[in-house]
Write a structure and sequence with these properties.
Length: 99
């Protein structure tokens, strides 16, 4: 009873993803990633399986009008933001001019 219901839900989810993936591969991918706007037909075919699986997240980004990919937030980037900006190098530390 539970397994057939889960399989039906999975089938509906995948069919919805397939229905979403074709227009997304043709139009939507260029809207959420400027680099993908110049993607070839081969690229667009290759992203269809991932689009089928991740369609709710991609639909949310597309319908919100997010103009580009999110900026990565990791420990290295956070540390770099916390450090003071580097100063201009001192002229005394440069190599002397060659003769």
């Amino acid at each position: 009873m539970i397994v057939p219901a889960l399989l039906i839900l999975l089938g509906v989810y995948l069919l919805a993803g397939l229905a979403f993936s074709v227009p997304f591969a043709l139009v939507g991918v260029g809207k959420i990633d400027p680099h993908a706007a110049q993607g070839t037909w081969g690229f667009r075919v290759l992203i269809i399986p991932g689009t089928i699986l991740l369609w709710p997240l991609l639909a949310q980004r597309w319908f919100r009008g997010v103009p580009g990919p999110p900026e990565e937030r990791n420990a290295h980037r956070l540390r770099a933001e916390a450090l003071p900006s580097p100063r201009a190098p001192h002229t005394s530390l440069r190599y002397p001019p060659s003769p």
